[in-house]
Amino acid sequence: MNLELVLILVVLTNLKLLGSSRLGSSIRTVGVQGLLLGLLPLVAGHDLTARVWLLAAGGAVIKGVMFPWMLMRALRDAEVRREVEPFVGMLTSILIGIVALGASFWLGHRLPLPRPAGSLLLVPVALSAILLGLFLIVSRRKAVSQVLGFLVMENGIYVFGVGVVQETSLLVELGVLLDVFVAVFVMGIIIFHISREFDHIDTDRLSMLRDWKP
Amino acid sequence: MMIFALVLVPALAGVAAVALRHDRARRALLVLTALAHAGLTGAAWVVLPGPILGGWLALDAPARLFLSVTSMLFLAAAVYAVGYLAREPHGAEKDFEDGSLFTNAPEAVFTACLLWFLAAMTLVTASQHFGLLWVAIEATTLASAPLIYFHRHHRSLEATWKYLLICSVGIALALLGNFFLVVAASTPEAAPVPMVLGELTARARQLHGPWLKAAFVFLLVGYGTKMGLAPLHTWLPDAHSESPSVISALLSGALLNCAFLGILRAHQVCAAAGQAVFGQGLLVGFGLISMAVAAVFILGQADYKRLLAYSSVEHMGILALGIGLGGAATFGAMLHAVNHSLTKAALFLVAGNILAAYKTKSTADVRGVARLLPVSGVLWVAGFFAITGAPPFGPFLSEFTILKAALDQGRGAVAVAYLALLALVFIGMATVVLRMAQGESGRATQREPWLAVFPPAALAATVLVLGVYVPPALGRALQEAAQAVGGF
Q1: Is B184 among the domain residues?
Q2: CB-based contacts of B256: which residues, under 8 Å, 6+ apart?
Q3: Quick one: B358 exposed, middle or buried, by C-beta within 10 A (0-12, 13-18, 19+)?
Q4: What's the domain count of chain B?
């Protein structure tokens, strides 16, 4: 496994996510992406110290196993229809994904790193994942899909962090992982409550709180 | 040692709160922890604790200032919460807006999250390391989300979801900003600079300029979401209006300040690197936009808790504006952060009393607060005058300092916009607040519980004192804090 292969696979999982119409397969795709990110610290050209192994294991377990498991459980408890139900169609989504990827390459080219990283693909792949995550959050109706968008965005930031940043401390990295873990945990609980209260998890219908009532 | 204690005491008390089975014991624990935290914070004013963990945690001047505000508000909120929790029914409760039944979250969960919220906010103020600061700010979001969802009904659920998602996404952008900062700090010419504030400011000249600017933008947008700067404020009115009033007081008075501190830290590094002008332009822009958006939504606002929430957006705009102007306005912004926190917390606690008596948040349905609830009525009107910057209250002094700095710098257009927006907000709030206070409620005067009126009264009295007399110790602390973030 080398770094560029992992990065290309991350991009492919993102495109797959844009084209999936089932929530279950979307969750699995994000899980695969999480496992790939677990590999990232090992292939990013760091010295393979215990710290790097711990980071890789922590990333793979939390992003690749725990998140899909928690979201699958939320989905099962919510007993909702399993379609993604996007505001933007699948084909348009994929086209937007490709445009975002192009924009990320252009942006990554414009912002050269002061100290070169392991691969030229790192910055564009990270940026495209962040953009696509944001796109998924605003273009999908189901609360679970929005959490998936948040995870994709978080994964993009993780790619940037692991690949580009050479010296961070383990404490901070584990703190970040823990925070994201708890965030997804709490979001899962809230999704469960939303499904119980409303009999759906369509966030566009969460529109009771506003300033001017029609 | 003392900093460890400040973080660990509330964190461990939170664990104990989950284990305790008796409501009374848990409430006593809440107040005792708040007292212990306030005592430790007070001790930090006598003997400044040294940095620990290799400089990762330290109480510098801005940290001590914001920690003290947080600790004071938490003490007031803890006392108020005892009365509040005693009044809340245990079984199902009727929702006053749509009549459906709902229950409250278990009190143990509420108290534990409240204490963890305090621990996380303490960690935010004491963090000198940018990564740790991020972890702590995200932790405040996670600890406070269950607090917003205390009343388990539709609207609070919607508010909690928006709060969690919008703030998590915002804070994720701040994480990217942190990574950009690391990139800016690792240039090929010299050894990389650690992410500790003191090191970054001392060796700021060797930071890579474009990446530092990008880092500042992302940190501003990320923490600005949490701070409620428009147009990133959309979670704020919902969360503040749907959470219990005691939580609204803490969100508005303490949490927004914590996010503001995150932006201040980024600004400190920028200023040391000679990039202050770039960041200050952005801050002035965000500040004025926040004030304008808040003014639009305050005019004709039909919900008095949302009114207070939008007022918070306005005041966060004033803080950003103060830092953006720099110089003497930085001192004004520091003083204003203290004044706004105390005033707004008092107002939210009073709003809780009004809500308990009238069972509605609609401004049109509340009349005669001054007759029905004499103490709360007086505090409501006094709080309104204080928050809109009327003399002799503290916010007048700080808002005036910022205005004067803008005029002294020859920024006439900014000063005019600032004054016009303050006037709009004054008019918008006056029509709502005074109408609520006056008139007949059609009911006999109620006796108000001591626990419900003393905390806001104490906060309001402090604001009044600060408007007339700033104690020399506080004045010095504010001066030091302003100097630390690049003003004077």
Answers
A1: no
A2: B226, B227, B228, B312, B316
A3: buried
A4: 1
Q: What residue numbers bound the domain in which B342 lies?
A: 275-488
- Token couple for B39: 């005592």
Give A-chain residues touching B158 at CB under 8 angstroms: 206-209
Q: What secondary structure letter does DSSP report for A62?
A: I
Residue B83 covered by a domain: no
The Cα–Cα gap between B346 and B73 comes to: 9
CB atoms within 10 A of CB A1: 11
The pLDDT tens digits for A26-56 are 999 999 999 998 888 888 777 778 878 888 8
CB of A91 within 8 Å of any CB in chain B? no
Question: Residue B50, exposed/middle/buried by CB under 10 A (0-12, 13-18, 19+)?
Answer: exposed
* Whether the predicted pLDDT of A214 surpasses 60: no
Q: Is residue B329 part of a domain?
A: yes
Q: Determine contact: A146 vs chain B, CB below 8 A.
A: yes
Contact at 8 Å (CB) between B145 and A186?
yes
The residue whose two tokens read 């790939």 is A36
Q: Could you read off the pLDDT of B249-291 as tens digits, one per residue?
A: 999 999 999 999 999 999 999 998 888 888 999 999 999 999 9
Tell me if B29 is assigned to some domain: no
Chain B residues close to A171, C-beta within 8 Å: 131-132
Does residue A81 surpass a pLDDT of 70? no
Beta-sheet strands, E only, within chain A: none
